[in-house]
Amino acid sequence: MPYLDEIEAAIPGLRAFARALARDREAADDLVQDTLEAALARRAQWRGDGPLRGWLCRILLNRFRDGLRRNRPAAVALALVPDQPDPPAARKAEGRLALAEVHAAMGQLPDDQRAALLLVALEGLSLAEAASVMGCAEGTLASRLARARATLRQVTGREMVAQRHGKAGE
Amino acid sequence: MMPEGSRISAEEALRLRHGSAEDQARLAARAARDAGLAGDLEEWDRQDAALRALYAPVADEPVPARLTASVTAARAAVRAPAPGIWRIAAALALLALGFLAGWSGARMLQPPGPALAETAMASFATYAVEVAHPVEVGAEDEAHLVKWLSKRLGTPIRPPDLSDEGFRLIGGRLLPGETSPAALLMYEDEMGRRLALYVTRREGGETELAFAEEPGRRAFWWIEEGLGCALVGDLPRDTLRRLAISAYHGLTDT
Q: Buried (b) or exposed (e) across B241-251, using 16+ Cβ within 10 A?
């Protein structure tokens, strides 16, 4: 049953996406569970003619939005790194970015901007694919992405460096 | 392509960066002549690397059993006849009935219903997520709403009362339709869940209550007395069916 195999294979990636989106381990796994159940229930609709991963991300995003509508006040995430990333990978990528800072900055982004950024940066989708997952126009996705990246840059404190670059270029 | 020397906008640069291989090559060529852009690209690379370092390792964690359980259960259920087979059998039975009853019966199986459900689900997807403007005319102005929509549809319609199920009318809007404009009535419950009732003129081909679904939404739809209607929401099927029956009576009972 390839469909079931494909769904099962998508679980680890979905957990990462959900964790980054919901910023809480339990809430994220609840989202993944809801998503899997919905995907299994709607199996008959799946024609295997598009990326299953994108379809699953779309269901997950919808569940996430529904959940926020249901318990808006409780959804405020704490600004801490809940589940420490694996240290060697973290150190490798650190460069000039402090990861805890980036995680905190992600928490300040509006949900749609955070989701847009994660779809391209973490899921590796193209802008067009990410727009279709989010059900918005490509222009909308580009502007969410631009705002998310600008905020991230500002909050992690390298806006000054960027301005110097800008001047040097003129 | 932008003229030499003008700054490329962040949106445009991001479209290229997350576009095709050719787009990315064009962006790299521009960045070679534009130190500001090159700085942006470096920053975005660092952001992406940081996000992957933060969140990608989650995928290497052991998957909790509760998440694999649903797939395992589905795999076991595959040994039982798949629901699809029953659906095909049901369709064949209906088809046979259609032949017996003549073409008017067979017409029930033709496209108008599914197209109606699809249009209704697309309208729900577009407007139910709207926080600021889910409706054009709010329920506080219900008398005007009813008069306006009835006039534009060319047939009297009345928003059904779904308050027994906890859903109150928040308003409605007019949409383009095939043979007449369509009305979309929006309802909401205390938890902020929304339901949309799509109503348009549809002559002939009366149907029973039928079910359709897409990722993120389900619909019960029917055609009767010149009206094609669909109730759409992201609710459990049984709940939605109950609501659809209430809506059906509310719309047509006088």
A: bbbbebbbeeb
Question: Which tokens hold the place of B106?
Answer: 């067979």
Per-residue pLDDT tens over the stretch A147-168: 999 999 998 876 544 444 444 4
DSSP lists the bridge partners of residue B197 as: B185, B231
Residue B137: strand pairing partners: B172
Closest C-alpha among A40, A83, A77 to residue A59: A40
Q: Which domains does chain A have, with CATH numbers?
A: 3-71 (1.10.1740.10), 88-169 (1.10.10.10)
> Which residues of chain B have a CB within 8 Å of the CB of A138?
15
Confidence of residue B85 (pLDDT cuts 50, 70, 90): low
**pLDDT for the residue numbered B23:** 94
Specify the amino acid at residue B67.
Answer: L
d(Cα A37, Cα A113) in Å, to the nearest integer?
26
- Cβ neighbours of A102 (radius 10 Å): 23
Q: Give one DSSP letter per residue of B143-190, joined into a string.
A: HHHHHHHHHHHTS-------GGGT-EEEEEEEE--SSS-EEEEEEE-T
A13 touches chain B (CB under 8 A): yes
Residue A78 contacts B where some CB pair is shorter than 8 Å:
no
Give Cβ neighbours of residue A26 (< 8 Å, ≥ 6 apart). none
Q: How far is CA B106 from CA A96, A105, B81, B91, B229, in A?
A: 68, 59, 27, 11, 20
**pLDDT tens digit string along A80-114?**
344 444 444 444 444 445 788 899 999 999 999 99
Q: Which of residues 101-130 of A touch B (CB under 8 A)?
A: 102-103, 106, 117-118, 120-122, 125-128, 130
- Model pTM score: 0.53
Q: What ipTM was reported for this prediction?
A: 0.80
